[in-house]
């Protein structure tokens, strides 16, 4: 019951498009009150900053966490190559009865305008709730995608990419269809919980009568600065989760993750495809395993993520190494062995997940696990072959359960003056 890789992909090392909000000397227009006396203040004080209301004569500078900003406009949408954020919300919408292409275009125009303002640390264009009044941008990203059903509802079937064909069934699936798929998908991430919620609420309000929420999920990651130095994140099983992620510096990164500028359909140029899966971790069963047993399931040391064949976290795994009894040091069904790109015809995807915890069931079982999100230029060459192989014998499968699934076409970034999806909806 597996998923491409709970341990074999590395989270992006750092945000790639960060800068202080314009005209603020690093202080968000939202920042009337920063964090006074905090260590690591990145910027000097600036007087007379303007937020929602008149600012004090001397505004306190934001910490680096609050002032970090991702850019809305660009070649690609934000929230794909940016570093993991501490808080996340995933939400899918279905267009309302009678809503079509015209209403969808107006909605994406509203959503894009709201996302651009919120990512700059500004108030929502209308009806702002003041939830994030005192905070900076906090690395907020808002990402938009289209599901398979969107194209039929808007009369754009001829523009539907073949890469958006429904995923095949997997033997490990236990899917709740009411919490899967959707016409539209929005990913929200930020390094402050209130900033993330503020964006979620604004996006929901902007939907108005054009679309209704189909499902919504909340996630989290370790907060920036919580470790002594930047490191690969851990999941709720305690494993380093993201060791072999493709990196933007890799020569073939764009080819694997993004649709080429000359690709088809033309409106998907510089876009990507997101596979979204809610994977419940059976933590009570997992935590009964001894440490050596857990490491054998994954194929890596729990403490530092190094392969069982030796070395450090980034040391190549020696799949042929055997112990004194002639047994493979990395078991044949170890998750890390099965998910290696060189064991799957080079199939690769950029994993950018959130953990989740949705409470404790009546029997005391935690409803917790991973909001798995992976990005690739073509899911039939990225996600699908790896998942099929995992289906055939991954040792991790008995400790996880795939409960929801979605596949979304995420177009390239909007140019200045454009909204996301404009080339599809007005092409």
How would you portray this structure in words?
By secondary structure, the protein is an alpha+beta fold. It has one domain. Helices cover 18% and strands 18% of the residues. It contains ten helices and eleven strands. The strands form three sheets. Strands 7, 8, 9, 10 and 11 form a five-stranded antiparallel sheet that branches. A four-stranded antiparallel sheet has the order 4-5-3-6. Strand 9 and strand 10 form a beta hairpin. Helix 2 packs antiparallel against helix 4. The longest helix is centred in the N-terminal third of the chain and has 19 residues. The protein starts with 45 loop residues before the first strand and ends with a helix. The N terminus is likely disordered.
The radius of gyration is: 22 Å
- The percent range for helix content is 10-25%
Shape verdict = globular
**Beta-sheet strand percentage?**
15-25%
Q: Low-confidence parts lasting 5 or more residues at pLDDT below 50?
A: 1-29, 31-57
| Number of continuous helical runs | 10
Distance between the termini: 41 Å
**Structural class based on helices, strands and sheet pairing:** alpha+beta
Q: Could you give the order of the helices and strands? A: EEHEHEHEHEHEHHHEEEHEH
Let me know the average pLDDT. 88
Main location: other
Enzyme class: oxidoreductase
Subcellular location: Cell envelope
InterPro entries: Dimeric_a/b-barrel (IPR011008), Dyp_perox_C (IPR048328), Dyp_perox_N (IPR048327), Dyp_peroxidase (IPR006314), EfeB/EfeN (IPR006313), TAT_signal (IPR006311)
């Amino acid at each position: 019951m597996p998923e491409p890789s709970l341990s074999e992909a590395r989270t992006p090392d750092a945000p790639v498009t960060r800068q202080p909000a314009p005209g603020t000397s690093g202080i968000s227009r939202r920042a009337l009150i920063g964090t006074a006396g905090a260590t690591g203040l990145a910027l000097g004080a600036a007087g007379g900053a303007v937020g929602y209301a008149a600012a004090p004569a001397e505004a306190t500078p934001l910490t680096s966490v609050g002032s970090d900003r991702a850019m809305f406009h660009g070649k690609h949408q934000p929230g794909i190559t940016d570093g993991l954020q501490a808080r996340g919300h995933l939400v899918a919408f279905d267009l309302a009865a009678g809503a079509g292409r015209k209403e969808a275009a107006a909605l994406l125009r509203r959503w894009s305008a709201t996302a651009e303002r919120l990512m700059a640390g500004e108030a929502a264009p209308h009806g702002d709730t003041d939830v994030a009044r005192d905070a900076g941008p906090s690395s907020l990203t808002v990402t938009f995608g289209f599901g398979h059903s969107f194209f039929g509802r808007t009369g754009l079937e001829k523009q539907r990419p073949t890469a958006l064909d429904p995923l095949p069934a997997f033997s490990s699936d236990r899917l709740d269809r009411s919490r899967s798929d959707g016409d539209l998908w929005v990913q929200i991430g930020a390094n402050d919980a209130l900033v993330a919620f503020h964006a979620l609420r604004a996006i929901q309000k902007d939907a108005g009568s054009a679309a209704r929420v189909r499902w919504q999920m909340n996630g989290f990651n370790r907060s920036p600065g919580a470790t002594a130095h930047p490191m690969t994140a851990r999941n709720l099983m305690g494993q380093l989760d993201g060791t072999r992620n493709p990196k933007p510096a890799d020569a073939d990164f764009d080819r694997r993750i993004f649709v080429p500028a000359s690709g088809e359909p033309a409106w998907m140029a510089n876009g990507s495809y997101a596979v979204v899966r809610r994977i419940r971790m059976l933590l009570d069963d997992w935590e009964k395993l001894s440490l050596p047993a857990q490491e054998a399931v994954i194929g890596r040391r729990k403490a530092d993520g190094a392969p069982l064949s030796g070395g450090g976290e980034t040391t190549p795994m020696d799949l042929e190494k055997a112990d004194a009894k002639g047994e493979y040091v990395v078991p044949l069904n170890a998750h890390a062995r099965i998910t290696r790109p060189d064991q799957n015809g080079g199939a690769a995807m950029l994993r950018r997940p959130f953990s989740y915890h949705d409470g404790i069931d009546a029997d005391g079982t935690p409803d917790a696990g991973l909001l798995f999100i992976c990005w690739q230029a073509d899911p039939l060459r990225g996600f699908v072959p790896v998942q099929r192989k995992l289906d055939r014998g991954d040792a991790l499968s008995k400790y996880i359960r795939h409960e929801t699934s979605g596949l979304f076409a995420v177009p390239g970034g909007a140019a200045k003056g454009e909204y996301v999806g404009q080339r599809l909806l007005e092409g």
